[in-house]
Amino acid sequence: MEKDINIAIVGGTGSLxxxxxxxxxxxxxxxxxxxxxxxxxxxxxxxxxxxxGKGSLEGETNQEAVQEAEFVVIAVPYEGHATTVAQLKGQLxxxxxxxxxxxxxxxxxxxxxxxxxxxxxxxxxxxxxxxIGALHNISAVDLQSPDASLxxxxxxxxxxxxxxxxxxxxxxxxxRTFDAGPAANGxxxxxxxxxxxxxxxxxxxxxxxxxxxxxxx
Length: 217
What we know:
There is one protein chain. By secondary structure, the chain is of the alpha/beta class. It has helices at 15-25, 38-52, 62-67, 81-88, 117-125, 140-144, 160-171, 186-202; strands at residues 6-10, 30-35, 57-61, 71-74, 96-99, 104-105, 108-109, 131-133, 153-155, 177-179. Helix 1 packs across helix 2 (38-52) and helix 4 (81-88) packs parallel to helix 5 (117-125).
């Protein structure tokens, strides 16, 4: 992978997007936070810079954010997922899309018509860009803390080369990754988030995650 990495986080002003930005900037990744509102993106960037102290972090509209990025993370609520991806169609050629969206209704998972958020995005984009599912089961609270240990990240998609690149990026934030198979497995991984939400509520935690055992590093 090239030394310099540019990543746009679409919907980066949310809890997952901003926490992911903190983790990515620390090891030297250039991050562009995207939002429908440029000023909102830049306000979040200023607040994150106070925590980071240094690093390459910018705020733009979603469309502007993806222009210079090699990798584009989709981190919007599911309600805006299809619309957001459709608005970016035509601007993602040559890029890798990392879909971190989980279909939820009142905290409960459901399977959308396309089969998963991942497959919905790939259906919209077609051959324009590979879509890789990842980061669904990581706690935003743990991402926000640079010293917190992270759960394992299950990565799925139909493009093996793109999956490998995404796994290398995730290693930079301090998480183990596992190739969890084709895009068809996305609904299972996305659905696990609903279980983790329930466990957090049941056991009064904010740190539930997934750990894979029985496989050596």
